[in-house]
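Task 17 of the worksheet. Students: predict the tertiary structure of the chain below and write it out as structure tokens. Keep your answer in the requested format; marks are given for formatting as well as content.
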Amino acid sequence: MPHADPGRADEGFERIVVNLSWLGSQIRDCLGDGARYGAAITYSDETSRALETAGGIFHALPHLSPGAFAVVNGDIYTDFPFDTLSLAANRDAHLVLVPTPGYLKGDFGLERGEALAAGRFTFSGIGVYRAAFFDGCVEGVFPLLPLLVRSMEAGRCSAELYTGLWEDVGTPERLAALNAAPLGR
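Model answer:
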């Protein structure tokens, strides 16, 4: 992205797993092994079939550390302080929520640090999980939402609201708007 360098080890990430699907070879060619960012990058290949968010994370579990791990969507732009991410011992997931942009409707709520299955906030695409979050799952294509709701209903999903810089650049139009915006927004 023109406004910032990709994540670096000094931002708290030393080991990075990148799920590859559409245009995966271009991503691998661009990022390489991660050495120039001070990190080690491993790739989890989904090029034969995109596995959706939860299926992709589940497929990547063998590449991840045994403890809690962060997941960050590749189509967001943010200044979120990643070094503040944490996951309490009695939780399997922690979500970063943001105020809902005008082109979306809210997905989740937040009450005293608990994530709620309905509300006025949007999931930012930044979360922390434990492998236990995926208990009962099998390899294949499956979405994240049912697992989030299951965790919320069990009281095992915390959340926080981030009101700093966050943009969803998941469409060419939104990426072009971000690229046209002045630096230091």
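Marker's comment: Residues 1-8 have pLDDT under 50 and may be disordered. The chain has two domains: 7-50, 67-180.
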